[in-house]
């Protein structure tokens, strides 16, 4: 039997112990329903490593299939449902893979089509890219995506124009803002909790960041989870939960691909030594850390977490 749900959207209330934020374009804390308030969300950016790291001009390789199937095995082992932000350049080539993810009960959301950073394209190009992703996913799984994640978390101060476009296209939520300071992405003053955009009805689900000594530290996943000691990341996530904030976490299937970078190099890709180190370090620890993470708390999909709000 499900727990009784309380009113889940309070435009006046700040998160426990925090002041309400009012940055241009963003406002209003959103409180998830009672039944999902302390569930975290694991999100998967379903993309291929060369496109994501070396550039959008690269072709999709077959390693994305093997890596995603391994990810599905881990999720099945823990009976966890995740939200997959699908790059539809991958979906066009491996449609059966996306259908398999959907058939396993995971949420299918959009990661756009071509993986162009929003900082490098115009609003019109962005809209065309996202429309294309909607059409492809709708044809593959029979329903349109409710959520979107920008490539490279590239909704930043200069690309806030993306929110109203996403809302006009029918998206209910975005998970594109990283509330940290970083040279390539992030809005360090953005709310750490789920909130609505001020100038449209879009809900923003920021990536998990741990407030410490006046700064937001990234603990959400990806390379941060790979490089941080696993116990430190799990501690930070539990501290975020103790403030009543669900932790939105992320990973890429290729992070389970221990020999992936070497195999890409053998296939002819030019990968510099710095990328080989930063992208390959501790990959052999990722699967074990993922198992321990999924055992440490309850997880749900973004759609389920936001069901009282969308």
Helices and strands, with pairings:
Elements lengths: L25 E4 L10 E7 L2 H6 L8 H16 L4 E4 L1 H6 L1 H9 L3 E4 L12 H19 L5 E2 L13 H7 L4 E2 L20 E3 L5 E2 L4 E4 L2 E4 L3 H6 L2 H13 L5 E4 L8 H7 L6 H8 L2 H14 L2 E2 L1 H4 L5
Parallel strand pairs: 2-3, 2-11, 2-12, 3-4, 5-6, 6-8
Antiparallel strand pairs: 1-7, 7-8, 9-10
Morphology call: globular
Tell me about the largest β-sheet: 5 strands, mixed
Annotated CATH architecture: Alpha-Beta Barrel
> Within the largest sheet, what's the order of strands?
1-7-8-6-5
Distance between the termini: 22 Å
What sequence of helices (H) and strands (E) makes up the elements? Answer: EEHHEHHEHEHEEEEEHHEHHHEH
Q: What is the CA-based Rg, rounded? A: 18 Å
Percentage of residues assigned to helices: 25-40%
From the 3D structure, determine the CATH topology: TIM Barrel
CATH domain class = Alpha Beta
Query: What is the residue-averaged pLDDT?
Result: 88
> How many domains comprise the coordinates?
1
- Number of extended strands: 12
Please provide a written account of the structure.
By secondary structure, the protein is an alpha/beta fold. It has a single domain (26-305), classed as TIM Barrel. It is 37% helix and 14% strand. The chain is built from twelve helices and twelve strands. The chain has helices at residues 49-54, 63-78, 88-93, 95-103, 123-141, 162-168, 222-227, 230-242, 260-266, 273-280, 283-296, 302-305; strands at residues 26-29, 40-46, 83-86, 107-110, 147-148, 173-174, 195-197, 203-204, 209-212, 215-218, 248-251, 299-300. Strand 5 (147-148), helix 6 and strand 6 form a beta-alpha-beta unit. It starts with 25 loop residues before the first strand and ends in a 5-residue tail after the last helix. Residues 1-22 have low confidence and may be disordered.
